[in-house]
Amino acid sequence: MQLSDAHVLVTGASRGIGAEVAREAARRGARLTLVARSAAPLEALAAQTGGRALPADLGDRDTRRGLIARAQAEQGPVDVLVNVASLDAAGSFLTLSADDLEELLTVNLTAGAELTRQVLPDMVARGEGHVVVFSSGFSTVVAPGLAAYCASKGGLSQLAGVLRTELKGSGVGLTLVEPGPVRTGMYADIQAEPLSGAALRRLVRLRLTREVEPQEVARATCDQIEAGGPHVVVPRRNTPFMLFTWAPRWMSEVVLTGLARR
Ligand SMILES: NC(=O)c1ccc[n+]([C@@H]2O[C@H](COP(=O)([O-])OP(=O)(O)OC[C@H]3O[C@@H](n4cnc5c(N)ncnc54)[C@H](OP(=O)(O)O)[C@@H]3O)[C@@H](O)[C@H]2O)c1
């Protein structure tokens, strides 16, 4: 899906990786709808990129309902949905409150799945479109201090794998993004918490991963949207870990739906 003149809806666009994906898509000619809770940074980015801000709390069920239709009423059919919005809630699972647990699973897993559910029927009817699911290397790595986060990301990676089988032959593409550590506010939070910070430092010290800039993730994501590619793993050093998890997914995809990718 070429980004030039495409209507691209990015969630989590107020800062971090989501804001960089929006900037990169705008550089490639996309028309943007920008979603997050913080209206001021969204409005500022909308002004810079010629996009529209759509402030929304994706943790709220009523706000999620009809959100894609509201974006489409403003700028026409959504061609590309990029689900970036996420929370981290770093710390021991034993100290996590019921409200924080529910909010994390809702924003990270339910909201992305729900927006994808809202957007897909129209894309499939048109025979074109693209969905991006932002998961994490923590969909595979079992990191102390990130139980709920890892659970949400494991769910997203599995959701993406199954959706790709269902979308085969529809003309609609799907890219799963599974980054390692990216220098953003979320990464700073995870580093600052003793349990998850120690786990991250160990992964970096053992050279199993390295830190990357959000712009690198944004460029790789936009490249894969335009190429119709299924997967972004950055840095490449993370690939061996991800292969262990992906091998049974690819095998079952081929066994159950055949070799054709799209
Ligand atoms: N940074 C990393 O090391 C890393 C590594 C692997 C994967 N990832 C994934 O990459 C994505 C982006 O991460 P990041 O590091 O850029 O995170 P970030 O800087 O913390 O940004 C998170 C974004 O999500 C939005 N958001 C949070 N709760 C929301 C809600 N209830 N409703 C709407 N928007 C909400 C935030 O906006 P508001 O607060 O304004 O609502 C913000 O725009 C996430 O999916 C993350 O899991 C990050």
Which fold does the CATH topology of the domain at 80-255 refer to?
Rossmann fold
Helix/strand class: alpha/beta
CATH C-level category of the domain at 80-255: Alpha Beta
Total strand count, please?
7
Report the CATH architecture of the domain at 80-255: 3-Layer(aba) Sandwich
Strand content: 5-15%
Order of helices and strands: EHEHEHHEHEHEHHHEH
Radius of gyration (CA) equals: 17 Å
Number of alpha- plus pi-helical segments = 10
CATH superfamily of the domain at 80-255: NAD(P)-binding Rossmann-like Domain
Short description:
The chain is 53% helix and 11% strand. The protein has 262 residues and is α/β, with parallel strands linked by helices. It has a domain at 80-255: 3-Layer(aba) Sandwich (Rossmann fold), CATH 3.40.50.720.
Q: Secondary structure elements and their pairing?
A:
Blueprint: E1 7-11, H1 16-27, E2 31-35, H2 39-49, E3 52-53, H3 61-64, H4 67-75, E4 80-83, H5 98-126, E5 129-134, H6 147-167, E6 172-177, H7 185-192, H8 194-205, H9 214-227, E7 231-232, H10 239-257
Parallel strand pairs: 1-2, 1-4, 2-3, 4-5, 5-6, 6-7
Helix pairs in contact: 1-9, 5-6, 6-10
The structure holds NADP nicotinamide-adenine-dinucleotide phosphate.
